[in-house]
Amino acid sequence: MLIRGGTVVSEGRSSTADVRVRGQRIAAVDEHLASEPGEEVLEAAGVLVLPGLIDPHTHFGLDSGTGPTADDWSTGTASACAGGVTTCINFATQFPGQGFAEALDAVRRQAEERARVDWSLHLNITRLDDGWERELEQVVDQGVSSAKVYTTYKDAVFYVDDWTIYRLMQRSGPAGMLVQMHAENDDMLQGRRRELEAADKTSLAFHGEARPALAEAEAVSRGLFFSRVTGSPIYLVHLSNPLSVDLVTEARNAGIKALAETCPHFLCLNDSVYQRPDATRFLMTPPIRPEAMRRGLWERVRAGQVDTVGSDHCGYSLEQRGDTSAFGQVRNPGIPGVETTLPLMYTFGVKAGLIDLQQLVRLTSEGPARAFGLWPQKGRIAAGADADLVLFDPRRSGPLRDEELHSAAAFSPFAGLTLQGRVKTTVCRGRLVFDRGRVLGEEGWGRFTERLPALPESGWSG
Ligand code: URP
Ligand code: ZN
């Protein structure tokens, strides 16, 4: 396959070039490559040719105790194909009675059969049972080098206490495991919730207020403290508060290995959405923040303080929310997003003049590849790398419609926004998985991708 005449953006550079794909790899990138007999030619003049996105935060098939998300691996990765996402790193929850390997195997079986793009797994640790230290090392050996802990959701399987996190981090660094933290101080959330309920402020309009931004920043500083005293790296997921990002930056400046992720919904929406009659579309945790914080987050993104953008794709349908008469009653927070990251980041970031194309690629491909041990195999357009590419047409513009999307959640919180640019074609390991409106990726094409341990000596460049 020859991709001809596009604007190729990779590794901090952007230029008009041709890209030759042979088999599953990129064979050459050059100013002018003559087409060879039998080669399929994709004309890309006027189009951006970017490394396929790596979404470091998806929850396909998540079950928090009330049944799985509408999106499974088939529909979730169909949505990925259409969004230019060629690798999804999904969470595998450790349920009661399961060791680490069992938790991963259960999800691995689903993904092997149904994933249409490449994938990897983060372990979601919920307990440390006897022998966990050895198990942790085995999991890293099998190419799973990140594990998430939750500081909230006490009513579900996910929550772990500080002692567990501290013990885990005493071992995670030496084992090559990057600990990821969903940071929200649960006591602060519960306190605020009681206050709101006492004042009869229980409708969805108060979803944002019920989970204060300060609760996130507090838990972030705790995670950074554990990183400081154990020496193990930490990755803070879905940061919504500029103060959280600043805490990460300060820690980094003090020599702590800490990484920051944010999400398109925090960058593109503000908390006025909770006043809308369709507020149920915007229920996720942490919630969407006030406009000043949205702007503040962009400032940090622009300044290079944020390493990755992940969608936190959690494809529950609106029906799966259950009772939406009060924020405290809602089941299943989470929104679909794997398909919309690229046009959102292009529209609100590049077109708005806040970031350039190189930064866009750093946040959505290169950053996740480096953070999660996929670099240099993925996240760049260069000879020898996997042929994971997205052709993005920045000229197409129009309001986003629920109907154009592929998630089984069947809605988007971004519907109605006028987005500049749409994905034209997605190539995953040399195969077209999306082209001009059609998902071509087949179930089972996606391959498990082993990741490097999070250790500098193994080439980890997070
Ligand atoms: O609301 C969200 N974010 N649901 C997904 C689970 C999580 O907290 O990451
Ligand atoms: Zn989370």
Automatic annotation (TrEMBL):
The modification N6-carboxylysine is found at residue 148. Its EC number is 3.5.2.2. Pfam families: Amidohydro_1 (PF01979). The keyword RNA-binding does not apply. GO terms for molecular function: dihydropyrimidinase activity; metal ion binding. Keywords: Hydrolase, Metal-binding. One of its GO terms (cellular component) is cytosol. Residues 48-433 form the Amidohydrolase-related domain. Carbamylation allows a single lysine to coordinate two divalent metal cations. Its cofactor is Zn(2+). InterPro entries: Amidohydro-rel, Hydantoinase/dihydroPyrase, Metal-dep_hydrolase_composite, Metal_Hydrolase, Metallo-dep_Hydrolases_sf. The keyword Metal-binding applies. It comes from the Bacteria. Belongs to the metallo-dependent hydrolases superfamily. Hydantoinase/dihydropyrimidinase family. This is Dihydropyrimidinase. It comes from Candidatus Dormiibacter inghamiae. The gene is hydA.
